[in-house]
Structure formats: C-alpha cells, structure tokens
Design brief:
- This protein is α/β, with parallel strands linked by helices.
- Helix 2 packs parallel to helix 5.
- The protein has a 5-stranded parallel β-sheet with strand order 4-3-2-1-5, with helices on both faces.
Length: 193
C-alpha cells in the first residue's frame, strides 16, 4: 500500500492570486445580479385614496397592509378628501354617508334627515368594535409597520391649509402628482379608491 502524501504542493496548484480575485469578482457580480432580479421581481401596488368618509378609509388601508404582508412594495397616495384619513384629528371624526349609499337599509329620503350620518356612523363603529375589526388608527399603524408608504398629496395639503404636523407620524408629506405617477407607471397594480 502506498503512503503518498495527499497534501498539495505549491507547484500542483495552478490557480494564481489574480485568478482567484477575478473569480471572486465574477461571483460577487453574479450575486448582485441575483439580488437585482429578486428586487425586480417584487410586485408593486399604488392606491390612490380620494374619499375621506368613514367607510372609504378602510379599503385602501386593508388592501395596502395585505399586499405589504405578501412582500409587495406599496404606496397609498392620499389626495383631496382622502387626505383626512391621514390627518390625526380628522381621521377620528370621519362619517359614514347614509345618503346615496345603495346598501344602506333606509331610503334616501330618510337618510337625508339631520343626524342620520352620525347615527349610521355610530352604528358602523359599534359593529366594527363588536366584530373586533381594526380601527382606522390601527390600520394606519399596521400599514406603516408593514412598510407601506402612506403619502400626503402636497397640493391638497396646501389647498386644505393643513400643516405637515397634522398627520400621523410616518406619513410621507410633500409628495406631488409627478412622484405618484412615476410609482403608478412602475406598479403591477393601480387602484383608485
């Protein structure tokens, strides 16, 4: 039986330091390419929230937080009355409109009476509470924690004479339509709510 040493000698290894460095650079390039491919593979969603009624605050926040839970890059651009969803004070006083809502269990003539919006809102808040459904504030917090970018339209902020400090912490202010359009153009899903 032969007892030859299996330890490599300097002459047996044809790989030079320069070749190893070149191979490392090539592997780093491949890894960077894979990371870019994964980033490019990430789905994007843009939601434009234009309505600020109590019932219309829920759809953009639920859809955004759910998409973020799936790893999507999500932006919700709030403009006009939708901006009140992000306004810390106003979001606590959003009302459910009883008039013109085809699913309200009352005729429009009755829904138009003074106090009906307040009553409908109170009933819906109770139903949400009894069901254990998240509040608007909780959905905003969840969305932000999930990486959703909640944007406030700069033109609407100025139009409504709001201050940037009026919004929940974490809301992105100073966003213009051009920025929102750019994300929409890159998105796999665009929704207008």
């Amino acid at each position: 039986m032969s007892t030859e040493s299996s330890a490599p000698t300097e002459d047996a290894d044809p790989t030079t330091e320069a070749e190893l460095e070149a191979r490392i650079a090539e592997l780093e390039e491949q890894v960077a390419g894979l990371e870019t491919a994964v980033e490019d593979d990430q789905k994007k969603m843009t939601i434009v929230a234009t309505k600020g009624s109590f019932d219309m605050a829920y759809p953009p926040l639920i859809l955004a937080s759910t998409a973020a839970a799936f790893g999507w890059d999500v932006i919700v651009f709030h403009t006009f009355w939708g901006l009140d969803i992000l306004h810390e004070e106003n979001s606590k006083n959003l009302k459910l409109s009883a008039v013109g809502n085809p699913n309200m269990p009352m005729p429009n003539a009755l829904a138009a009476l003074p106090g009906m919006d307040s009553m409908a809102t109170k009933m819906m808040r109770k139903k949400i509470d009894d069901n254990g459904t998240a509040t608007i504030e909780e959905l905003i917090e969840l969305s932000l924690e999930s990486g959703v970018e909640l944007q406030a339209c700069q033109m609407t902020v100025e139009l409504m004479d709001y201050d940037e400090d009026d919004f929940y912490d974490g809301v992105t202010t100073g966003v213009g339509a051009a920025t929102a359009l750019q994300h929409m153009a890159e998105s796999d899903v665009q929704l207008l709510v």
